[in-house]
Specification:
alpha/beta; ten-stranded mixed sheet; 22% strand; globular
């Protein structure tokens, strides 16, 4: 029984320790727990909220590693199934001195891709205050997408607030057209939609924050708020009633790794809303954790404890 839940594919990530070396040439790697949705679960738990993660892993060393790391992060595993028939996904990531790192996946046909929706019938929604969904899990297989849509149905029935991050992974889809159509359809069921400006350009043809927000506000009756992530510039917010505002980002001394920043943004938003904070304060926290995330090499290593978050907000200046 948790305040927060999410569904996704956890991944064993091997991050290169050698700066600006290609994955082909790099020899030394460090193993991390990764996966967009599991990143959010880690961050939510680290800020003191009970968190439950839904997935399937293989009965293999990577699956065992993931379960152990989830337990270390105090994330519930009651809805994680294990299988001997399929293997747990993993990936490689290089380390760069600037820009976005290169990533190579080993995930096709994985255990999570064979997730069976019947597992979702076991969920206890009684204490759940928020759920976070992303566009990655429904991309990995038809079975995963069927389960994802069933979870949306259950969340709607239980009137659980939901956030949705498009989290585009074109390499997981058969075509861009299928990706765009499916992601926009899934987004229409979420109360809060979290696109980035690059995603907006792909999904609806514009990089203009207000145009992106208007598209998703008109995309479905369920959507009440759209928060467009602007990278270092912060975030643009618009609500169904027409209210809009921009929350500036935070200055960062050095960017180590950009992966996990968007998930950190979701962590800040979700936890603040669970705590009853207003939307503007929630977006300030979201920007803060996104900024903290880019200063660490792992996908979720930079997510703060409450004390660390308080210190960051006290000492850092808004851009």
């Amino acid at each position: 029984m948790s305040e927060f839940l999410t569904i996704g594919e956890p991944i064993a990530l091997f991050g290169s320790e050698e700066i600006d070396k290609s994955l082909k040439d790099a020899l030394h790697f460090q193993k991390f727990l990764a996966g967009a949705e599991v990143n959010v679960a880690v961050g939510v738990s680290r800020l003191g909220h009970s968190s439950e993660y839904i997935t399937q892993v293989g009965k293999d060393p990577f699956g065992e590693f993931i379960i152990d790391r989830l337990h270390e992060n105090k994330i519930g595993t009651d809805y994680i199934s294990e299988t001997s028939d399929f293997w747990t996904a993993f990936q490689l990531k290089d380390r760069v001195s600037e820009g976005d790192p290169s990533i190579f996946y080993f995930r096709k046909g994985s255990a999570a891709a064979h997730f069976e929706k019947e597992v979702l019938d076991k969920i206890d929604f009684s204490d759940v205050k928020m759920a976070h969904l992303s566009g990655i899990f429904p991309a990995i297989s038809k079975e995963a997408q069927t389960a994802f849509r069933y979870l949306i149905q259950l969340l709607e029935e239980h009137k659980i607030r939901t956030t949705f991050d498009p989290n585009l992974r074109p390499q997981l889809w058969d075509s861009e057209a299928e990706m765009v159509e499916t992601i926009n359809d899934l987004a229409s069921h979420a109360e809060i939609v979290l696109p980035g400006i690059n995603e907006g350009e792909i999904l609806m043809g514009s990089r203009e924050p207000e145009a992106i927000a208007d598209f998703y506000l008109n995309n479905g009756e369920a959507t009440q708020t759209v928060i467009v992530k602007l990278g270092t510039e912060g975030a643009y917010v618009k609500q169904k009633d027409g209210t809009s505002f921009t929350v500036p980002g935070f200055k960062v001394a050095k960017v180590v790794d950009t992966v996990g920043a968007g998930d950190g943004f979701a962590v800040g938003l979700v936890t603040a809303l669970i705590e009853g904070k207003d939307l503007k304060d929630a977006v300030i926290r979201a920007n803060a954790i996104g900024a903290m995330a880019v200063q660490s090499p792992g996908d979720n290593d930079g997510y703060p404890t409450p004390t660390e978050l308080e210190a960051f907000l006290k000492n850092q200046k808004v851009k």
